[in-house]
Amino acid sequence: MGRRELREQIFLLLFRVEFNTPEEMPEQIRMFFEDDEVMYTEKDADYITAKYEKIVAKLPEIDEMLKAKSEGWDIKRMGKVELTVMRLAIYEMLHDDDVPVSVAINEAVELAKKFGQDNSGSFVNAILAKFA
Asked: Is the full-model pTM beyond 0.70?
């Protein structure tokens, strides 16, 4: 699985955080990897899980940064897709040395366009540009 596909799978797993309690997430992770539509190698599953766990551990910090940079926007009012995409991108920008900032932003915009609404890409780009 390529980096783009791995990032998309991390996004899809991280998206479940918005709809499940922390206690429900182990079961959600198990169901995520049992999905018959995507075949995961053990290496890919380990990478996705590890990165997901690292992001979740940083969510309070990431959300505080998002609140500070997204003037006029309460993160509770943001779309779930956009919020999840930005959480992933901010984690990559600040804590993943393997991902250049420009790549994190570009990939986030592409994910927002794919899974969000018409203006999601522009919104995500505008917020993430404040982190660059």
From this structure: yes
